[in-house]
Amino acid sequence: MLASVGAWEGRIAGFNSFQNLRRNPGVVGAFLTALGGSVFGSVGLSEEAAVREGFSVLTGRASSSTRHPRHLPGASTLLLKLVCQRETGRLLGAQLVGGREAAELINLLAACLLSGLRVTDLPLLQHGTHPLLTPSPVSHPLHQAAEEIVRRMGF
User: Fold this and answer.
1) Average pLDDT, the chain
2) Is the pLDDT of residue 147 over 90?
3) Which of 38, 87, 100, 122 could form a disulfide with 146 if both were Cys (CB 3.0 to 4.6 A apart)?
4) Which position has the higher pLDDT, 1 or 60?
């Protein structure tokens, strides 16, 4: 996590030292690690951290295959958890575990956090898909987890 945060802050400092002023919108703390054949990732606040910070939260979980159909060679299970603010639907964080393909999902979710997207925006995100590279477009875990929260919000 230090490299992710340090590289970002170093980039801003470098721009600013040459009078090419850039605003630092804050750090969302995108983190990835690999252990064995699994990738673990986190961005933003966990459910516990959000509650500790005083947020009332809703969470959504989804499980999907990293390839479609799931019996393709090299497919693994991807588990995703989204955390959002109950009152506004603002995305606060996400955690995941899955195969190598899961890593870029944390980077996408970091962009969603920095952009201020709400959980109601997430089911509308468009993805390029390919059976050997991505989860199924009809059961993408990002859409599934977001839809779970949206249903509980009454939308």
Assistant:
1) 88
2) yes
3) 122
4) 60
Residue-level pLDDT at 19:
67
Domain boundary assignment for the chain: 33-153
CATH architecture label of 33-153: 3-Layer(bba) Sandwich (3.50)
Local structure of 2: helix, strand or coil: helix
DSSP characters over 30-57: -EEEEETTEEEEEEE--HHHHHHTT--E
Helix (H) / strand (E) containing 138: none
Q: Cα separation of 112 and 125, whole Å?
A: 10
Coil, strand or helix: which one is 58? strand
| Strand arrangement of the beta sheet that strand 31-35 belongs to | 31-35, 38-44, 91-98, 77-85, 57-65
- Beta-carbon neighbour count of residue 125 at 10 Å? 13
